[in-house]
Write a structure and sequence with these properties.
Layout lengths: L2 H20 L8 E7 L1 H17 L3 E6 L3 H9 L5 E4 L5 H8 L5 E16 L6 E3 H8 L24 E5 L4 H9 L11 E3 L2 H10 L3 E6 L7 E2 L2 E3 L6 E2 L3 H6 L5 E9 L4 H10 L2 H9 L3 E2 L9
Parallel strand pairs: 1-2, 1-3, 5-10, 6-7, 6-8
Antiparallel strand pairs: 3-12, 4-8, 4-9, 4-12, 4-13, 10-11
Length: 297
């Protein structure tokens, strides 16, 4: 064997070893599913990822948030396998995927009640959708709590502090659609990156009102019920009212892929929609996408 043949043989053996190491059954590297998007879903997505490690150690699921719009952007540019969303895909986003010769595939993975949060000392206990429009919507006339017939202890000048989400958020888009009837938001709200940030700010600010998924609720904030029309029942957000459709700001939660998923991605999505995956979602405060029997405790 000459020198060139010797080096070729070594290179061939190294290539075989490296290829073996790169497979999930090679023991040194796992396949990775990239999962990104909705801040509403990020906590349950992380819980799914952690639980799945015990079921399929050969697959790692890398989860990040950033908002539904961020997830769709990553899906369009091909940097994620699954996009999480708390709103349906927009026509323009779908068209960008179709322009690449494929189609988005939608999975409803659960339901969420979008709650309105106020400070624990705020005496108001209910809102109508029209009142929310007057508080948040462009052209709305409500700027002070006294205009709603109350005074909030500790709120100087009774000026309402409107806490909202950034405009790449599916929660922002859904609240705009359902509570503001697709009108624009007033300028001057405090637009925060995450749902937890909304709850934290409302908790520490007597004048504040904010909104996010019910799963982010804490004992330190108050959650008023919502009237759909004057004189109707006032419905509180919960898993049950999200499921039966009585809560007026309930919504579907989605995962999207480009094209029908196969292999590890399909197996993971099938598991998320199984009783085990759906019970994890329920544990985190969301309504499951189907009827499930979960263990108590």
């Amino acid at each position: 064997m000459n020198t060139n043949q010797h080096y070729a043989a070594i290179f061939f053996l190294l290539s075989i070893l490296l290829a073996a190491c790169g497979r999930p059954d090679g023991g040194s590297k796992r396949a990775v599913i990239q999962n990104k998007g909705s801040d509403t879903l990020v906590n349950v997505a992380q819980a799914w990822s952690e639980a799945y490690q015990g079921i399929n150690p050969g697959i790692a699921v890398a989860v990040s948030g950033g908002g539904s719009g961020t997830g769709f952007a990553a899906l369009i540019n091909g940097t994620v396998d699954i996009a999480n969303a708390s709103r349906a895909i927009k026509k323009a986003e779908r068209e960008q995927i179709e322009a690449r010769g494929s189609s988005p595939v939608e999975y409803i993975v659960g339901y969420d009640a979008l709650a309105v949060f106020i400070h624990a000392n705020n005496p108001i206990d209910r809102f109508s959708l029209d009142q929310l429009t007057d508080i948040y919507g462009e052209g709305g006339t409500v700027e002070k709590w006294t205009q709603l017939g109350i005074e909030v202890p500790g709120c100087r000048d009774q000026e309402i502090v409107r806490v909202s989400r950034q405009n790449n958020s599916g929660t922002y888009a859904y609240f705009r659609e359902m509570a503001l009837h697709d009108s624009d938001f007033k300028l001057g709200s405090r637009d925060l990156h995450g749902s937890k940030d909304v709850v934290d700010l409302v908790q520490s600010t007597p004048c504040a009102i904010g909104y996010s998924g019910i799963a982010y609720a804490t004992d330190e904030v108050k959650i008023p019920c919502i009237l759909t029309t004057d004189g109707s029942d006032c419905i509180s957000p919960s898993i049950d009212t999200a499921l039966d459709g009585t809560y007026p700001i309930a919504r579907e939660l989605f995962m999207y892929t480009i094209g029908e998923p196969t292999g590890a991605v399909k197996e993971y999505l099938d598991w998320i929609l199984s009783d085990e995956g759906q019970c994890i979602l329920r544990e985190k405060g969301y309504a499951p996408a189907k009827a499930v029997l979960c263990e108590a405790g």
